[in-house]
Amino acid sequence: MSDGRLPVQRRWIRWVIGAVVTLLILAIGWVAIRGISAVSEMQAVASSASQMRGFIADGELERAELVAPRVAQHAATAHDLTSDPIWRGFEFVPWLGANFTAVREVAEVADSVATDAVAPVLEIAGGIDLASFGFTGSKIDLAPLAEVEAPLAAASATLSAAETQAQQINADAALPPLADAVREMRDVVTEAATVVGALHGASVLLPPMLGADGPRTYVVAMQNNAELRSDGGIVGSLALMRAEGGTISVVQQASTADFPPLTDPLPLSESTVALFAEGPGLYVQNITSIPDFTEAGAMLALRWEMQFGQKVDGVIAIDAVVAAHLLEATGDITFGPFTANSETILSILLSEVYATFPDPVEQDAVFAQAANELFAAALTRGDPQKLIAAFAVAAEENRIRIWSAHPEEETLLAASTLGGTLPVDGPRGPYVGVLLNDATGAKMDYYTEASISTAVGVCRGEPTTQVRVTWTNDAPADAEQTLPQYVTGNGIYGVHAGSVRTMIAIYGPEGANVRAVDRDGAEEGVQTTTLGTRSVVQHTVLLEPGESTTVTVSFTGTGAGDRLTRLQHTPTIGTPDTTRAEITCE
Question: In the chain, what is the greatest distance between 2 CA atoms, to the nearest angstrom?
Answer without folding.
Answer: 117
